[in-house]
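Homework-ish question, so no full write-ups if that breaks the rules, but can someone show me the predicted structure for this set?
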Amino acid sequence: MYIIAQLVTSFIASAGFGIIFNAPKRTLFQCGLGGMMGWIIYLVLDPYYDTVISTVAATFVVGVISQVSARVYRMPVIVFSVAGIIPLVPGGLAYDAMRKFVENDYNTAIQLAAQAFLISGSIAIGLVVSEVLNQLLRKRKPHQG
Amino acid sequence: MSSRENVPPLSPIDICMLAGKIMLQSGAETYRVEDTMIRIAHSLGLSGSHSYVTPTGIIFQAGGPEAAKLIRIAERTTDLEKVASVNSISRQLVAGEISAEQAADQLRGIEESSHAYSVGLQVAAASISSGCFAIMFGGSIYDFLPALISGGLGYAAVILFHKLINVKFFAEFTTALLIGMVSYLFIYLGLGQELDKIIIGSVMPLVPGLLITNAVRDLMAGHLVSGLSRGAEAMLTAFAIGAGVAAVFTFL
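A: Not a homework solution, just the prediction itself:
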């Protein structure tokens, strides 16, 4: 039940962000799907591994889905990846950190801010790794687009 | 509105600048803007061109004896439809499927076109997303409705405040203040269980998570100026939201 609720909410939330970011209509489903896959992988890995590792793995999957969709629909990767990584981005953490700063709780604030920075770094790593993989696979073909 | 025939034709340099400007304003990555501009330039017969893109401006030099041109970018939003459209025009141009005039026409059309989804639909999407986020981040089913309402109100407010107040910081601060008060009101009235989850869900459409991630990506790609300025923008937004919500806690 818990997993089903998470699947449904993450799909809707990601697709909703697709609408906010004005993603083309026929890509909204892929946006939601990417967000859902990433979030579920994150949820499954998070209890066992470090948050950074789970985030890299989840973003890598989002990246691969985005690369494939981008190839199929002939659109930039960012159209698909942006909505997909939304559930993973440390927006809540960044907000929490700033709230602690404002409340003069500097120790917690610095900790949270450092964590938010590390997580955004790992999102970037996940995306870059999937992109590198895509480039390596593409280089095998004689003609590149 | 004047007809297209009265508009003077764009020079190849201006076509590149226009494409870059639309992409940057719509939230494309720095390297993609540079790459697209140079590809378009190449297909229009400008060789050896250089483009230097930062989040606040584009400098483009078309190579040879041409003068460099500069465009300043004051406003940035996320509009993936425009990024995708400019990208497809650039592809068609490189493949020789459309002429320079057609590309210029289409680019002008994209620049004038507005958001494909109506404001009402955006607010609805933001509010449903907020409700879903409250549940994803561990809230109970009772937190869904409060987050849905305050998230929708918050997103509508940020659009309105952006029009009223020219300073982004204050618009975001005021919105966060509103979200904090509405969420607190829901808890006070006994609707909803966890204040923190409701607030985090409601502010998700505003938080600069994407900016932070883009900033780190820019830094990794060697676009140091872009990375730092995007990071600064993200910090400022996070600060505005955090301060707005915290202000509510201070007074209650």
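Now go work out the reasoning yourself. Hint: The helical segments of chain A are 2-20, 28-45, 51-73, 77-85, 91-102, 106-139.
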